[in-house]
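Hi L.,

As promised, Down syndrome critical region protein 3 isoform X1:
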Amino acid sequence: MSVEIKLSRSNRIYRPNEPVEGKIVTKLSSSISHQGIRLKVNASVNLQVRGGSAGVIESFYGVIKPITILNKTVEVLKSGRISSGSTEIPFSFWLKDPGEKPLEKFYETYHGGDISIQYLVSVDISRGYLHKSLSATMEFIIESEKGLENLPEKPISPEMVIFYMTQDTQRHSLLPELKSGGFRVSGKMCTLCSLSDPIEGELTIESSAVPIQSIDIHLLRLESILVGEKIATESSLIQTTQIADGDVCRGMTLPIYIILPRLLTCPSIFAGPFSIEFKVTLVITFQSEQSKVHSKSNFKTLKSWHAAESIPLELIRTK
């Protein structure tokens, strides 16, 4: 015996002002009686503070309660029987009932390191005390409502920031040949991005006394959680995009084009108990004997053969 939930949309993406529709599919070797079929819809912001993070004492670890967004039960069928074989039972429910005040804002689905925002629908087929209930759970994805007045139309005006990197802009120790010979990199990058569009920009290696090994762009998330009177902030890597491999011709403009991963990003959030921000870090790795020995290094710890520039990034949802 098995039961599963099939949603009407293959991508499982819905908006709070739309109905969520689908089917409950049962596969039974023989017919069974049941005491009702119900759907439970749960949504919450789950918060986790790592012990010692940002000075927060370890006794805080794991004690933060989730923020409930939605918690409702929908009755699909009253008690009865389900025939043997495969049976499809349709269902439909609204996340926001007309006139109903939500418990919390409908934040977009997000899978982070210390913060996750999830929307789950579960089916429960109760069969009484003598039989185990049949159940299944599926996650569906929520995006901002299209009808919101403060949701900007596409295309948004790109806000470009101009940056440059030299040996004098770096705050960590550099290779002696980099300090003496120097380098200069200039470029521009969009700092206000729609989640449905790529991050775009360009950079130019104007000069460099040391050959370049690689140019990479790290997409980072900064998750902050309010614990008592303290704020625990943790930055973590989402993805790395290499835009150049090997020594780059001087004076040649390189395009920056980064596609955002859907579930690992969301609109930038600044809520009371938590916030989710993003930034990109441009890292240039110069050729040296040390870089060959330490080919893999932590993105948080820059070595003497690295040069880096960080740019804050605001992500928004557009119509």
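The radius of gyration is 25 Å.

Thanks again for sending the construct details.

K.
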